[in-house]
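Now for a concrete sample entry.
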Amino acid sequence: MLFDGFDWDKGNRGKCLKHSVSVDEIENLFYENILVAPDIHHSSKEQRFRAIGITFEGRYLFIVFTMRLKNKLQLIRPISARYMHKKEVNAHEKEISRIQK
Protein backbone atom coordinates (compact mmCIF):
# COMPACT_ATOMS: atom_id res chain seq x y z
CA MET A 1 0.00 0.00 0.00
CA LEU A 2 1.47 3.32 -1.05
CA PHE A 3 0.90 6.45 1.02
CA ASP A 4 2.58 9.77 1.75
CA GLY A 5 1.77 10.19 5.43
CA PHE A 6 -1.02 10.39 7.97
CA ASP A 7 -4.03 12.65 8.51
CA TRP A 8 -4.46 13.43 12.21
CA ASP A 9 -6.67 15.89 14.09
CA LYS A 10 -8.07 15.96 17.60
CA GLY A 11 -11.08 13.88 16.51
CA ASN A 12 -9.29 10.77 15.32
CA ARG A 13 -6.32 11.21 17.69
CA GLY A 14 -8.67 11.27 20.68
CA LYS A 15 -10.54 8.18 19.51
CA CYS A 16 -7.30 6.21 19.26
CA LEU A 17 -5.89 7.49 22.54
CA LYS A 18 -9.16 6.49 24.25
CA HIS A 19 -8.00 2.90 23.87
CA SER A 20 -4.45 3.75 25.07
CA VAL A 21 -2.96 3.33 21.58
CA SER A 22 -0.36 5.97 20.75
CA VAL A 23 -0.02 7.79 17.44
CA ASP A 24 3.53 6.40 17.12
CA GLU A 25 2.33 2.80 17.53
CA ILE A 26 -0.28 3.26 14.81
CA GLU A 27 2.06 4.97 12.37
CA ASN A 28 4.89 2.49 12.94
CA LEU A 29 2.56 -0.42 12.26
CA PHE A 30 1.98 0.76 8.68
CA TYR A 31 5.72 0.50 7.97
CA GLU A 32 5.82 -3.14 9.17
CA ASN A 33 4.02 -6.28 8.06
CA ILE A 34 0.34 -5.49 8.31
CA LEU A 35 -2.74 -7.31 7.05
CA VAL A 36 -5.28 -5.01 5.39
CA ALA A 37 -8.80 -5.84 4.23
CA PRO A 38 -11.77 -3.73 3.12
CA ASP A 39 -14.35 -2.93 5.79
CA ILE A 40 -17.41 -3.44 3.60
CA HIS A 41 -19.90 -3.10 6.46
CA HIS A 42 -18.80 0.46 7.31
CA SER A 43 -17.98 1.87 3.87
CA SER A 44 -21.20 3.70 3.01
CA LYS A 45 -19.76 7.24 2.73
CA GLU A 46 -16.13 6.42 2.02
CA GLN A 47 -14.09 3.26 1.62
CA ARG A 48 -12.81 2.01 4.95
CA PHE A 49 -10.24 -0.61 5.73
CA ARG A 50 -9.36 -2.87 8.67
CA ALA A 51 -5.77 -3.60 9.53
CA ILE A 52 -4.11 -6.03 11.92
CA GLY A 53 -0.47 -5.91 12.89
CA ILE A 54 1.95 -6.51 15.72
CA THR A 55 3.59 -3.59 17.54
CA PHE A 56 7.28 -3.46 18.46
CA GLU A 57 6.22 -4.64 21.94
CA GLY A 58 4.57 -7.74 20.43
CA ARG A 59 0.97 -6.63 20.99
CA TYR A 60 -1.67 -7.19 18.31
CA LEU A 61 -3.28 -3.98 17.12
CA PHE A 62 -6.56 -3.59 15.24
CA ILE A 63 -6.98 -0.37 13.23
CA VAL A 64 -9.84 1.00 11.16
CA PHE A 65 -8.77 3.64 8.65
CA THR A 66 -9.59 5.36 5.40
CA MET A 67 -7.46 6.95 2.71
CA ARG A 68 -7.70 10.69 2.03
CA LEU A 69 -6.24 12.75 -0.78
CA LYS A 70 -5.08 16.17 0.49
CA ASN A 71 -2.91 18.54 -1.52
CA LYS A 72 -2.08 15.69 -3.91
CA LEU A 73 -0.84 13.55 -1.01
CA GLN A 74 -2.30 10.12 -0.29
CA LEU A 75 -2.82 10.04 3.49
CA ILE A 76 -3.90 7.33 5.90
CA ARG A 77 -6.55 8.62 8.27
CA PRO A 78 -6.90 6.30 11.27
CA ILE A 79 -10.48 6.22 12.51
CA SER A 80 -9.99 4.02 15.55
CA ALA A 81 -7.41 1.68 16.99
CA ARG A 82 -7.35 -0.78 19.84
CA TYR A 83 -5.37 -3.71 21.14
CA MET A 84 -6.87 -7.04 20.23
CA HIS A 85 -8.36 -9.30 22.88
CA LYS A 86 -6.74 -12.68 23.56
CA LYS A 87 -9.64 -14.51 21.87
CA GLU A 88 -9.17 -12.39 18.71
CA VAL A 89 -5.41 -12.98 18.71
CA ASN A 90 -5.92 -16.75 19.01
CA ALA A 91 -8.43 -16.75 16.14
CA HIS A 92 -6.08 -14.66 13.99
CA GLU A 93 -3.07 -16.90 14.67
CA LYS A 94 -5.16 -20.01 13.93
CA GLU A 95 -6.30 -18.53 10.59
CA ILE A 96 -2.74 -17.51 9.63
CA SER A 97 -1.40 -21.00 10.39
CA ARG A 98 -4.24 -22.54 8.33
CA ILE A 99 -3.40 -20.29 5.35
CA GLN A 100 0.33 -21.00 5.56
CA LYS A 101 -0.13 -24.78 5.31
